[in-house]
């Protein structure tokens, strides 16, 4: 394969990629032509006034193929139920501090004179 053949093959490949890219972009623009922003300005205004909206206006986009049917949780959602284990009032595996004051000693400065 000569250098001229490589250049021609590269030019053809780049032209094919450009045509495919332009076709895909045109399809995406066409799909988005009828879509509107979500939430709409009206929904934003209502929310700013304190209204709660459960349902939103459809935005014109196709349904999400990965979304679970309405009213059903996601198959990846798990709820874990935990119950506390019965424990005695005082755990016996460690000692706690006593309420008795520390003995007066070397570090006691309550009655010491400062020079």
Folded structure, characterized:
- The protein contains 2 helices and no strands.
- By secondary structure, it is mainly alpha-helical.
- It has a domain at 18-44.
- It is elongated, with a radius of gyration of 36 Å.
- The termini are far apart.
- The mean pLDDT is 80.
Order of helices and strands: HH
Distance between the termini: 99 Å
How many helices in DSSP terms?
A: 2
Q: Strand count, sense and closure of the main sheet?
A: none
What is the mean pLDDT? 80
**Poorly predicted sequence stretches spanning 5 or more consecutive residues:** none
Describe how the helices and strands are arranged:
Layout: H1 3-32, H2 41-48
Characteristics:
115 residues; mainly alpha
Give a short overview.
By secondary structure, the chain is mainly α.
């Amino acid at each position: 394969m000569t250098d001229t053949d490589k250049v021609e093959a590269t030019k053809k490949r780049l032209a094919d990629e450009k045509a495919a890219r332009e076709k895909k972009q045109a399809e995406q623009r066409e799909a988005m032509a009828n879509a509107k922003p979500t939430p709409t300005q009206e929904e934003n205004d209502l929310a700013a006034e304190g209204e709660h909206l459960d349902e939103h206006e459809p935005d014109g986009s196709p349904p999400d193929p990965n979304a679970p049917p309405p009213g059903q949780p996601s198959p990846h959602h798990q709820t874990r139920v935990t119950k506390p284990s019965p424990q005695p009032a005082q755990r016996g595996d460690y000692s706690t501090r006593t309420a008795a004051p520390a003995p007066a000693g070397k570090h006691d400065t309550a009655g010491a004179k400062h020079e």
